[in-house]
Amino acid sequence: MKITRLLAAALTVAASLPPLLAAEAKTAPVVLSIFQVNSDKDEGYRSTQTISGSRTLADLRDTPNSISVLNRELLDDLIAVKLSDAMYFSVTGEIDTNRENANESFVFRGIVANLRLRNGVTWYGGTTDAYAIERVELLRGPHAFLYGEGTAGGLINQLTKQASSRDFQNANLIFGSNELRRVELDVNRRLAPNLAVRTALVYSHEGTQQHHAERDLRGIYVTGNWRPFRHTQINADIEYRRQDGVIGSNMLADGFSVTARTGATTALTATTGGRTYIPALGLSYDTVNRRRSNGTTIVLANEQIMPREFNFLGPDSVQDSKELAFGFHVDQRVGDALSLQASYTYFDIEKSTTERVGSSAGSVYRDTNATLPSGVVNPYFNELYTEYYSRRNNNNQAVHNARLTAVYELKLPFTTQKLVGSAVYHDAEPGDFRFTEFVDPASGNFKGTLSSAQTLAAYTANVNTVAQNFFYRRFYLKDGDRAALTRGGPVPGQSVILRDMQADSATGRLSSRLYRTPAYGIGSDGAYFNGRVHTLLGWRRSSFNQDPSRDFYNPVTGGTYKLDTPLSVVRTRITEDSYTYGAVVHFAKFVGAYYNYAESVSLSSGVGGAQLTPGKLRGPLMGDGQEFGLRWSFLGGRVESNWTYFITNATKNAANPAIPANVRQTELGPIFGGDIDTTGTDIQTTKSTGLEFETTANLTKAWRLTWNFSKNDLATSERYPQLKDFQARAKARSIATPDTDAFLASAPDGTPLPGFTKLRSNLVTMYRFDRGPLKDFSFGGSVQFRDKSYQGNFDLNNDGVAEELWTSGYTLWNVMFGYRTKIRNRRVDLSINVNNLFDKDYFRSFALATGAWGEGRSFRFAARLGL
Q: Of 103, 115, 637, 681, which sees the most CB atoms within 10 A?
């Protein structure tokens, strides 16, 4: 009902606007905005324009940045319902298929790029659905300049659908494997000569190959374009969408094979074990001092042990979100040389996601205990299991973004310069609360006593108490993952759901977290020698300002309190400059060379987490990179190819893998006491170098093709500098640190990051017959090739040296068929795609210990109707 009322209100307001305001536009020709792409110029999979270089309209061939475009025709041919469906075929790299992450992440040049933009504004939405998207521009490498913040690997900019002067109404009906059912409606109306409104709606349901996991999406997007005067253009859009989902499970790791070889087991402690519930038996017992098997911690890909359909998170593990967005943009041309744009965007999202937590949550173990604590025979002795405690993470974040951009076109006899200046105000206020299943304090099984005192000492004591009272659930693989076993919710008389103060951290929960990232910058986009040479120069100064406070939760009273301590308020002021400079030289019509240097700053990542040195914070993510390339164009632009060699450095990244607790807390904590922050992390630098080739061909109007190939090397350096310092200090005192030594040996400098794939190639092609017996039929296909992917380092042969581990590569073949006809003089496009035609078994790894199975053979059918 909410969506229906919103649509009705939007159309009513739009229809009531007086068409008399269009008097001048009836006779004056339309002047296109310098800030807006005209998608009508796209041909096949080839797009010639971008706004993601200098934030102004430019030809791709004249831009020194590495930018790829996924246009609407490619999205339709792939029957893409999410951007990831098309991103699999891009030159940028891989998709982080972490099913237990609330957001999709993309890997550019081996570096995770979890920052996404929408119409140039940072976008914190969940799954990137394609129903309201016209095209996606992929920016590879650092791009800070006037465009905004970004990660070193790159980012994506989603450009939404815009209202146009042509009336149309289209419906898309899509269904396919895994219970995919989807309806899209796209209606555009010209309400007056200078006013148009466009509305897109979607309802979608889809499951996965895993049990329980599914996603329901309902959304409405309304946008309007008003040109009250010849040189004035106003665009506004509003969107509301709601997603209700059940989260899927990542692959688990081997936690039993070492015990099978050596017989060694590990005792569970008060913080790694506790009250554990066995749903299949309906009983619970304390696992502290019980024994747990050991394994290699390598991802478990043996389906004889762990079928890919299993999802022990169960049907109550949610991944829900509500999103509301509003944007308003005014473009004004002043004379022949000056263009102005003022824009404002508001975005609010509320997310609720279930997390699987606990020291045993990521692996499969063997029950090595012959008896239960009561002394009776253990019916599951020698059986495999996994266990975790459930945590619900509720997030909300409101975002405001205002921007003023001015572009002055300076025309001189020897050059034309677009001089660009911008000022940006951006703020956001993240908020999160976590709720976890604990032992019921009234059950008699609760360990310790909670204090009602409102002091730091009482808070710290309460944190230590609740850490011993997590309520674990254990699932034995032989029982399966049916809903009756895996369904969540408190167990009467045994468990309750309470706010998780341990997740708030031992120093309290950060609150009042409004941060502001104002920025301003200037730049120049120049052309020389009749367009044979193009340059791009830019400088940007960005700031991060935040004054968060801390509150402390009292589990006895259920309220929070403040403390007047040095920890209570952390005043943060960071300013970073970023630069870009590059040039394109067209030696001839068919070839041009380019060079680009750019820096990246990701200020919205904030000051980062605490490091091992007390009081030291990681700081914002940063990076820089260089690109050298050639752009080729043949047959009047019907074949275009871009060749790039790149060098990208990502700095101030959190070190991966994270330092395990047995190193930080158990081993180093007692040695150094207050000189080490045992909850902290460490940092590293990542360098990515490689080659990218991307070719788009439209040899005839009937045949379109895109192909890409990339090769890159990824090496880490300057890893764990603080951890190595503590290691050296311990050795100077003749104190052995075997756990620290073993961990650092498993993460040497020069290794890639988990999930990194050295070689990738993708091809998509489609041919439509325009004559003969096959007229209006179309045939095509696509191929995805992936070389082996890096998992991590592990000493499999116990020789003291950790070997690099890689997952197997794979090639996926997909076929596409289509037919175009008319029914009652209405255009109808029918298409069916079969993906992974040969049902190839493969999985995508994103850590030594985990990954995600790829989808088997599947199909999608789409009927696109012109109503």
A: 115
Distance of alpha carbon 50 from its chain centroid, rounded? 22
Give the tens place of pLDDT for each residue, 194-244. 999 999 999 999 999 999 999 999 999 999 999 999 899 999 999 999 999
Task: Name the residue type at position 464.
Answer: N
Q: Nearest Cα to 292, choosing from 370, 368, 373, 384?
A: 368
Run of H or E including 701: none
CA–CA distance, 142 with 155 (Å, rounded to integer):
8
Residue type, 511: S
DSSP-derived 3-state class of residue 637: helix
Average pLDDT for 737-764: 87
Q: Alpha-carbon distance 42 to 48, whole Å?
A: 7
Distances (CA, A) of 330 to 347, 760, 867: 18, 42, 32
DSSP 723: H
Q: What is the DSSP string of 393-446?
A: EEEEEEEEEEEEEEEEEEEETTEEEEEEEEEEEEEEEEEEEEEEEEE-TTSS--
Residue 682 one-letter amino acid: D
Q: Is 665 helix (H, G, I), strand (E, B) or coil?
A: helix
Adjacency order of strands within the sheet including 509-511: 509-511, 549-554, 559-561
- Segment 437-452 shows an average pLDDT of 94
Residue 570 tokens read as 């952390």
Burial of 761 (0-12, 13-18, 19+ CB in 10 A): middle
Enter the pTM of the model.
0.89
What residues pair up with 729 in beta bridges, in sequence order? Answer: none
Report which of 149, 136, 132, 116 is spatially closest to residue 67, judged by C-alpha positions. Answer: 136
pLDDT digits (tens, 9 = 90+) for 691-741: 999 999 988 889 999 999 999 888 888 999 999 999 999 999 999 999 999
Handedness of CA 608, 610, 613, 616 (dihedral sign): positive
Provide the 10 A C-beta neighbour count for residue 30.
12
Residue 106 β-bridge partners = 95, 113
Q: What is the pLDDT of residue 21?
A: 36
3-state SS, residue 488: coil
Cis ω for the linkage preceding 18 (within 30 of 0): no
Crossing angle of helices 721-732 and 738-745, in 10° steps, is: 140
Element (H or E) spanning 202, and its range?
A: strand 195-207
**Is residue 739 within 8 Å of 663, Cβ to Cβ?**
yes
* DSSP letters for 100-131: TSSS-EEEETTEEE--EEETTEEE--SS-BST
| Cα torsion angle, 111, 114, 118, 120, sign | negative
- What is the identity of the amino acid at 396? N
Contact in structure between 383 and 367 (CB atoms under 8 Å): yes
